[in-house]
């Protein structure tokens, strides 16, 4: 009964976003939608989602023993919300730090040192909070060294700052990924729907590219200081590890 009550309260016409992309005619789509939702109640949707403030000192260390031959580590912390002004700077930073083949982590840890099978960084943005992620997969003997090198790179950026050439490279990489994503019909559909559902608006591709282009080096340096605080970053690992040494 609780599930049915929730459905009746939340799933009315006023709370639905329908997104479509591809070889469609707008009028035909509208006619089909009207026909198929004619039996639904025309209730106004009340969004009572308030979210919650993430913990300030949420540092966690969890090591899960496993018989797998490789070790999987996830090192990270809090990120920004979807509506934050840090949205594009943090996406650019995670791109240049470990989001492409030319990024710092990939070049240092995988290509130069040959320590990891896979390593990357990314960020996820939600309505009320966000998360930054640095992931690696390696043999158990390399885990300690990888984590140290990740920390060293963060310290190096905090000390010397982001270089202009790597910022421009990250901009071009991120812009290219965005432009390529519109070639996929499903990605285009999800982008339109998420924009309306979460942000109440849909930015054009050109608007997004302009926002990315306006990001400066100092914006990324501020991102590192704000979100990559080593004493507040958490670690979760799976595999055979020395629990006492990591983090």
UniProtKB/TrEMBL annotation:
Pfam short name (any one): Peptidase_M16_C
Ranges of residues in domain Peptidase M16 C-terminal: 3-174
GO terms for MF: metal ion binding
Family as reported in the entry's similarity comment: Belongs to the peptidase M16 family.
Protein name in the entry: Peptidase M16 C-terminal domain-containing protein
Species for this entry: marine sediment metagenome
């Amino acid at each position: 009964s609780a599930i049915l009550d929730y459905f009746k309260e939340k799933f009315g016409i006023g709370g639905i976003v329908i997104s479509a992309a591809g070889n469609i005619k707008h009028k035909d789509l509208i006619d089909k939608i009207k026909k198929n939702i004619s039996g639904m109640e025309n209730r106004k949707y009340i969004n009572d989602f308030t979210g919650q403030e993430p913990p300030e000192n949420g540092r966690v260390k969890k090591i899960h023993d496993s018989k797998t031959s490789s070790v999987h580590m996830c090192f990270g912390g809090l990120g920004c919300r979807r509506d934050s002004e840090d949205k594009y700077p943090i996406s650019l930073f995670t791109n240049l730090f470990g989001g492409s083949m030319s990024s710092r982590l990939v070049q240092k840890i995988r290509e130069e040192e040959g320590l990891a099978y896979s390593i990357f960084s990314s960020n996820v943005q939600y309505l009320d909070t966000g998360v930054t992620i640095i992931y690696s997969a390696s043999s158990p003997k390399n885990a300690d060294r990888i984590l140290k090198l990740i920390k060293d790179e963060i310290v190096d950026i905090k000390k010397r700052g982001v270089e202009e050439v790597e910022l421009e490279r990250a901009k071009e990489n991120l812009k290219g990924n965005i432009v390529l994503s519109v070639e996929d019909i499903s990605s285009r559909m999800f982008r339109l729907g998420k924009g309306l559902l979460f942000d109440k608006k849909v930015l054009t591709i050109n608007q997004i590219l302009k926002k990315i282009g306006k990001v400066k080096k100092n914006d990324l340096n501020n991102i590192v200081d704000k979100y990559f605080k080593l004493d507040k970053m958490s670690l979760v690992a799976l595999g055979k590890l020395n629990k006492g040494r990591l983090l």
